Amino acid sequence: MDNIEFAKGRGTFPCDISVLEVHQDLDWNPKVTTLNVWPLYICDDGAVIFYRDKTEQLMDLTEEQRSGLLKKESSRLQKLGHRVNYSPRKEKALKIYLDSGPSKDSSQD
User: What is the pLDDT of residues 11-29, one digit of tens each?
Assistant: First the structure.
């Protein structure tokens, strides 16, 4: 247990994070004593926890290996339909009508 490090993923399951970013972008081994305090706070369903062996060294990737991983991740994300960069629909204003408001005099229209 002494060699295990952990980090909370961003968002809830499925937590889409690149395998190339996971070791740098997450807060590994946050100094917390309970599960319900920041930055851990894993009391909600769907929380994703990553773990790793701190004695294992990270492998140095060649550019070819890195581009191969990026290609695999890209196709995986496209299959899942995640990571939409923009919305093709334009937002519309929301109108709220209250029945209890003053009635409009129809003779003025």
Answer: 777 777 777 788 888 878 8
Rg (CA), the chain: 24
Tell whether pTM > 0.70.
no
Q: Which residues pair with 5 in a beta bridge?
A: 52
Q: How many CA atoms lie within 13 A of 6 on its CB side?
A: 13
Token code pair at residue 105 = 């005099």
Buried b (16+ CB within 10 A) or exposed e, 23-53: eeebebeeeeeeeeeeebeeeeeebbeeebe
Cα angle: 83, vertex 86, 92; to 5 degrees: 130
**33-86 tens-digit pLDDT:** 777 777 677 777 788 888 888 888 888 889 999 888 888 888 776 765 544 455
- 13 Cβ neighbours under 8 A, 6+ residues apart: 46, 47, 48
